[in-house]
Amino acid sequence: MLVLLVISGAGLVVFILLHSGKGTGVSDAIQSSVTGSQIGTGLVEKNLDRITIIFAVIFLVALLVLMLIYPQGTINAQ
After folding, report:
1. String of DSSP letters for 38-53
2. Are 40 and 31 in contact (CB under 8 A)?
3. pLDDT tens track of the chain, all 78 residues?
4. Which stretch of DSSP H or E encloses residue 24?
5. Alpha-carbon distances, residue 50 vs 29, 77, 78 (angstroms)
6. Burial, 55: exposed, middle or buried (Cβ in 10 Å; 0-12, 13-18, 19+)?
7. In whole angstroms, what is the distance from residue 39 CA to residue 43 CA?
8. CB 40: neighbour CB atoms within 10 A?
9. For residues 53 and 34, what is the distance between their CA atoms, to the nearest angstrom?
10. What is the pTM of this model?
């Protein structure tokens, strides 16, 4: 579960950074280099949104499961 939490957290950071702010994001640079125009930009943003939401849900579920497995104060540091 911990590995899933770390992977989903890293993926979440990457895909959030790929979102464009006001037309100057990394996703716009990639999209314009691939297609050379603004056609399909909505599809790229929609897919980025979906992937980001999936990573966020996986992150939250993994976090909640770990909270149930290890309640506060049950991990002993030795």
Report:
1. STTHHHHHHHHHHHHH
2. yes
3. 889 999 999 999 999 888 766 555 566 656 555 555 555 557 777 888 899 999 999 999 999 998 898 887 676 655
4. none
5. 19, 39, 41
6. buried
7. 9
8. 11
9. 24
10. 0.68
